Records
---
Amino acid sequence: MNLKLLAKRLTAALLLLAMPFLVSAQQKTVNGKITSDKDGSPISGATVLAKGSKKGTQTAADGSFVIEVPVATTKLVISSVGFGTQELTIGADNTANSILKANNEGLTEIVVVGYGTARKKDLTGSVAVVTAKNFNQGALASPDQLIQGKVAGLQVLSNSGQPGAATTVRIRGNASVRQGAGQPLYVVDGIPLDGRNARPQLSAVGLGSTPDVDPLLFINANDISNVQVLKDASASAIFGSRGANGVILIETKKGNGAPKVDFLYQIGSSKVSKKYNVLDAAGYKSALSQYGIVSGDQGSAVDAQSEIFRKGLSQNVNVAVSGSTDKSNYRISLGYFGQEGVVKSSDLKKYMLNFQGSSKVIGNKLNLDYGVRVGQVNEKIAPVSENAGFEGSLIGNALQWNPTRAFRKPNGEFDQPAGALNPLALLEAYNDRSNLLNASIFFSPTIKITKDLEFKVSSSISTQTGKRNAFMKDFLNQTDIVGKGWAFSADNTLSTSLINTVLNYKKSLGSNIKIDALVGYEYFKSDRKGSSAFGKDFKDIPVNYTNILQYASQSSLAIGSFVDPSWELQSYFGRAALNFKDRYLVTATLRADGSSKFGKDNKYGYFPSFAIGWNVSNESFMKDISAVNNLKIRLGYGVTGSQEFPSGAAQDQYTFSQQSFALNNVANPKLKWEKEKQLNIGMDFSLFKNINVNIDYFKKDRTDILFNTQVTLPGPATKYWVNVPCNIINTGIEVNLNADIVSRKDLTWNLAVNATFMKNKLTNYKFGKVLTGVISGQGLSGVSVQELVNDQPLNAFYTKQFEGFDGSGGSKFPNGLTKTYAGNPNPNTLLGIRSELNYKKISLVLNGYGIFGQKVYNNTANATVGLGNLGKGNVDVRFIGTGEAVANTPSASTRYIEDGSFFRLSNASLSYNIGNIGNTLKNVNVFLTGTNLFVITKFTGFDPEVNTNKQIDGVSSFGIEYTPYPAAKTFLAGFRVSF
Amino acid sequence: MKSNQIRNIAILGILISTMLGCSKLDEKLNSALTFDEAKALTSAAPLLRSTYNSMQDALTSQDRFIALQEHPSDAMVGPTRATDWDDNGVWRVLHQHTWDADHAYITRSFQNLLIMQYNATNVLNFNPTPAIAAEARFLRAFSMWAVLDGWNVVPYRTAGSSLADPPLVLKGKQALDSIINELTAIIPELTNGPKNRANKNAARFLLMKCYLNKAVYTGNRKTITFDNADMAQVVSLADQITGYTVSPNYFSNFDPSNSASLENIFTYGGGTSENQGRAGNNVRSRWHMSMHYNQNPGGWNGFTTIADFYDKFEATDKRKAAVHPSTGYTNPGNRINAGFLIGQQYNLTTDAPLNDTRGNSLIFSRNVATNLQESSPTTLELTGIRVVKYTPDYANDDAPANEFVFFRYSDVLLMKAEALLRSGGAGGLAIVNSLRATRGVAALASLTNSNMLDERGRELYWEGWRRNDQIRFGTFLAPNQYKPSVSPDKCLLFPIPNNDLAANPSLQQNPGY
């Protein structure tokens, strides 16, 4: 590495705005842009070298590059995956633009598959690749948001607008019944993650629990070069008992070319994308008179939503220093991501450091990959819970607040009437901070034993510590808090370690047969522990209560600590891929997974897969067909597993509470993984050379479904983990189209559309009724609206049939209290659209997605803003003048089930590629991005994209809206520059 | 470097990684004990404590077994008040006798009681001392009695049996005999107290309930023929329960200092002193579930009694209403704060009249809506006579010092009087009149089934006995103010929850469900 040069670049980075011009004397600077011959789209990541030199650079996202070459140089060598190598003459004005000719239509593209790589054209499974260029744009805290709407069959639901909140990710439909299960396995640079995070859970007194944080938060989105989604079993079976929910492989950027600094700055402002339509003061007064209610007009005019929402500032700064020589490469990135939530007193700040490098030693026979990733995530968390009881949480309290009631009394104190929580008082009384520190290192030597045989060891250690301090001041007029106040302090640690060894053999036998085979071993261990303390009765002490927990009253103190049973996984795996004449492809994999979690009768599970592919286009009879190219047919079948249950679940466990212990988990020596058999039939082809098409049919059959259920009574107070032999079937068809509609020199337009049509069913289910979808709120205790029912979709809605109002304004329920089938919360159609328009230096990218066919239960309308509030609190505008009586009971029913279908323009980005400024600032690009620009939906609540946690006994709900932290609309401006 | 050296490095790497491998995948629990580890601890005391804790859910929560004993009776009703207390009709169907086998609180009561039974049985798996074993067996008998009373079948596991095996199912007489045998056997092993632990007199009390209701449990619950021998047992057991007196201050049995009560026989302790480490006893829900939001402490504005029941009380009855001393406020207007609350309610510190949340005067009325669904926004928060039996511990609303009372001496006296009445013996009237005198009401001229039941109602209202009493006296199916018709016979038993039927094939649904 040229340290001097690097130092200079770094200095330049720091003095960017003050010192824009640095000149290098003995060299000349060449600028250019590389585009594809196919559609004129820029080619990013192409290597640019001065001919006869090893010094080079890479093209930026817009295809542009800047390279310093000796004055004498006349030619550059350009190479890029999928395009081959090409020479280019430097023009008189020191520019060099090139249109690269695609090399076999991009199909020599190398993709990462589990524990190795493969040529894309050799793939037999269903694998979707999303490269950085195609990521969603905007202030995205977490990597899973980058690919929302990008991949057929992939559903990413934003559960909460709290910055950094976890998402619900489902690949090819919902196959899991348990809370927290069903998320895919994430693998970052070959290292499978634990999937959990170390933020302590808090169920705040009287408020309920706040949503979880995204476990990928500590990964810097700017470090990611591509994301691959392994959807079918033939692709994911190599991940065995953790592969059943699909696998998302995240690859980070590597250094390439001459040392350079990439700088990104982005600043923006967010506001709540939609306010809930409740009455304003004037409307409230007229409603009071309309319904003949004499009390309730408090004489003021306020808008509680405006008081708790705000414009939030987002900033993202990223500096990456990277480079390579022929023996090594490195990349260091430093990132700051700050996002103020649109609800006051909520924000997220991330500080991320990532170092990654590799070195070839011993005559290139030993390659060492190494890296360190450190991230600090600080959150302020708003009191917006997923399962607030009758007293609601912040958003609900704001919606309910009587719009004629001032928040403060004339003397300045909060007005806190009985039966309503003052949202501003709650905001001021509640304080919740979380700090997560994640550090991971990896080291991975690869030895080339012979030309064909490679031995690779990957090892990684990762530790995440989470600290959460929360308190609630005593002035809040809530039964359990007023005059008392509480404080909570907890920390958790999650440590994982992993080592795997892979022996890989790649060989061409003659010209017709290629073999790619590997065998491997993997050991994974995860430990989680923590402690917490809680106390009350801090009263009016003017100090952060969490600083003085010892002041709490003796009787209120609760302390606890835990160390989870270690989770160990030991696996043996192998894969063999055979390519015959580039026409016939066969892939077989097998993984044997042992897990310490499994019962002693089932310590190892075996997960095979088999797939064949046929490159039809390589057959001689296809030679004359010009309209269809690259036709490939794939057929795969495999078995994968899911072991998402806590460690210790297979054993009897006597757990401790103060001076006592009790049996809390009953042994099940037969306990094992959920098993999923998946069939995938796929076809890839291109039409008229400018439309790429992928079509896949899948059928997933999940059985041995894990339930945490009651032992046949008499027995201990729950729980018993058991594999129930029913089937959850997900079937569907995915279509992916990518068309270069216009490919002219100055104007290109690329349109990508993916669509998924799917069905979900629970079948062969013969056990007791399982209720879920609990509805929270006053008068709704113990009410649930979803059930697991044989031959129905998972989480089918079951509730009372609502048929309008009777003459006296009461709800009519023709079937009385009987619950009947009331709709399907699972969507039948997913849609994703991306459009990229380039005109000269201007580029406009639109990303949108839609989810269709699902029903959503509007718990907010049911419990928070009903007509019954009139005179006390606020009401949904829709509920005025419907013939309903004020005292009508808002009983859970089909009245609150709505069509949740929607289409969202998730982001639009307009960028202008300035190119180089002087000799130092290169690839300058300025952009404007808007996210969540509009949503087309009939849903009446904040946003139809919801999934608040409404589980019962660990069985999760799906598609219930309960006054979540609302989504934000964000506008950002920023620039990128390299030097 | 030569290629054989590379190979050596590779082989070394493979060897090292193979050595690192080969985990046996043994799982250590770290913060829990295995059965063997737990058993190796010589003391079963922590498990006994857990068993006491399991009474919290099973027997003290306002939406568990006590709700099943009171809501279906003529003494309690939970009307729906627009947004409040609908809960999908779960309270209304209890009072209207239209519950089904999916009823949430019938299901959870059944399950919590069986969990309590298991926890008690499990103590016996851990080499308990005879005293601890006796306490556990008492708690097991108590939970089994409650299941017998509600469902007439008792799923049962013996100590040492595997949870993988299906439980036994004891029916009617079989279950009762088992409970009677257990209680009889453990009386000598039990101590005399304290009253918040299983004790000799608590066992005798429960045994009295068994004999008094034996004809109910062993028959069809409709045509009940009492056996004089059983009644003699009741009388004899009552005479063995000594050392208690009826307290002249009725509400002192329930107030925050009721640990000093001379009447209480078996309680679930309150506060923090005696029961540190025990789960709370839910006493706070006794006042919260009935009081209005704007009262102090702010309640949940829920359950009320029924005017017909309220009218059974004479004006002078100390059990009806009282101004009970409190440390939490001065009560300058000497407003009634214990017993039945009716009419205008006041701030007990300032004596200002209270309003409801819509600004209407907080005046509790006698009646609730006939269909148990309030429909007028001006009265929906106000209907029904409220009941404050446990007077609130203002300073410690979330961990009140009040003990939760299961068994009380006045019930011993009333059971004895009833047994004498049923067996034709003398002395019942005198017992009842003596109690009445202490409670400030005039003597009865004679004792009949009807006034015996009424007296039990006046003395023991909202304590979790009313359904049991009404079934024994044959009035349970009869109409009351908010249940206009005679209920079907099936209502004498609760249905076995559907989930438990699915889990245990040897259970059969009770007739009629």
Note: Helices of chain A lie at 3-14, 233-236, 281-290, 304-308, 394-400, 423-429, 859-863.
---
Amino acid sequence: MQITVNGQIQELPVKDNTLLIDLIRDQLHLTGTHSGCDTTQCGCCTVLMDQVAVKSCTVLARQAEGTSIQTIEGLATQDLHPVQEAFSEEHGLQCGYCTPGMIMSTVYLLQRNPNPSDEQIIEGLAGNICRCTGYVNIIKAVKSAAKKMQETNA
Amino acid sequence: MNTFQYHVTNQITLAKDTFVSNENARFLSGGMTLLPSMKHGLIQPDHLIDLSKIPDLQVLFETSEHLTIGAAMKHDQVANHPIVQSAIPGLSYLASQIGDPQVRARGTIGGSIANNDPSADYPAGALALKATMVTDRREIPAEDFFTGFYSTALEEGEILSQIQFAKPIKSAYAKFKQAASGYALAGVFIAVYPQQEIRVAVTGVGAGVFRWTQAEQAFLNPKINLSIERDDLISDLHASSAYRVNMAQVLFKRAFEQIQNN
């Protein structure tokens, strides 16, 4: 099947019961996308599929045929993406396991709402669980990222 | 997950043919319930037939009396669609409260209604809003469609294609989320129709969605005592049945106030 991942068209054999996350990690060796709970709850495996955040542990690779996937590896160009930068600066992580998913959900949120309130950030990240931070710095990081992105676009 | 063959089609008739010619086949829509159930080994189909790419299941339109939504429409699409927001704001709000952003990006209205989880949101909306479930072979009113714990009137191989809601004068949904899953610990949908026809449906409290006739009467006569007398109340580690009944009373008041204030 054909699928575009981080801008590169991939033609690869895929079993019907392969999950999108396994295609990404095991076949394309992009291990930035993490598998946490494997039950559609924690959001570690979040990637963008045609610019929409999805949990890649609960999408069959075949369901993603023909789509364009963006993973955490596809965010940075020469420099870090503003959301990555903000998570680093605001210490929006401790162990970092959930961070790729948090960042992809944040990118999706800021795409739809460039200037979210605290409440909108909490709602926007409701599908991502962090067991370290208590979320305070994550919310700070999202706000900082929003500011950075607005300044870039201004 | 077990091995299976994945089929995808853009026509209902082809999906039906594939179902008939293959043993142990299941229809797949957004997969937000089916795929986790397969991972847990609760369901082990040999064939999955993906309905989510069939254009006939992705319609959304209104007439003077009805709002019709294709079964493969995703929760986010329903929540954000201007026609839904203006025709039935309570339904748009309901869709916006399902699960989390990633789940709303994949899960579908048809999948939720056909699965009839006792804590799902859409069944409450469908029952209160006098929905008609349109399938590949007939039309089923909500009253006959939801038949209890994870069960519906759908026959083997029957495909839910559209859900047709009767447009109310006013509508509101109030929900208390189970913190971990986002499912309704209790949810109450109120729909107001002409000639003081009030319909109240409750999810998360009984073994399946039900109409709360006392609340329907209490809407017009606040003196009526709001209790729920049923022998199928849910009591589990998340909440006792008494707690759920109490939440339903609270949520009815919240939805009622919303309707009064709009």
Note: Chain B touches chain A at residues 1-6, 8, 28, 31-32, 35-36, 39, 48, 50, 52, 76, 99-103, 105-106, 180-182 (CB under 8 Å).
